[in-house]
Write a structure and sequence with these properties.
Distance between the termini: 31 Å
Strand content: 5-15%
Helix content: 55-70%
Shape: globular
CATH topology: Four Helix Bundle (Hemerythrin (Met), subunit A)
Strand order of the largest sheet: 2-1-3
CATH architecture: Up-down Bundle
CATH class: Mainly Alpha
Structural class: alpha+beta
Order of helices and strands: EEHHEHH
Largest sheet: 3 strands, mixed
Length: about 120
């Protein structure tokens, strides 16, 4: 069973629980702005148990933009660090690929909110 993030109609990211938990933690570190605490609280649901999705379908466009930006910043840091510090570096390429997919989906959700689609 996995966890993930739903945002708008363009982001439905369901991955292994460990991938979602690590991604959420990385994103939370980069959240900024007045709604950062509320977004972080909604993301932390993936830590509760296997299966929950962080549901941001009703989030305003500004929150989706903040989330997408934080995800891009987190991905940049992850790419810079590489597999350094990973217990099993063989899992890093898969994690990175899933994170790239999340960023693309969040960017699409943020763009959708801007255009009202």
């Amino acid at each position: 069973m996995g966890n993930g993030i739903i945002a708008g109609s363009k982001c439905h990211w369901l991955v292994a629980g460990w991938v979602a938990r690590n991604a959420v933690d990385a994103i939370i570190e980069h959240l900024d702005g007045p709604s950062a605490p509320q977004i972080a609280d909604r993301l932390r649901v993936v830590h509760e148990y296997l299966g929950p999705m962080a549901d941001l379908r009703d989030a305003p466009g500004e929150d989706l933009h903040a989330l997408a930006n934080a995800a891009r910043l987190a991905l940049r840091d992850i790419e810079l660090r590489g597999a350094q510090g990973w217990r099993d570096p063989a899992f890093f390429p898969g994690y990175l690929a899933q994170f790239h997919d999340l960023v693309a989906q969040l960017d699409a959700a943020a763009a959708e909110s801007q255009h009202g689609a």
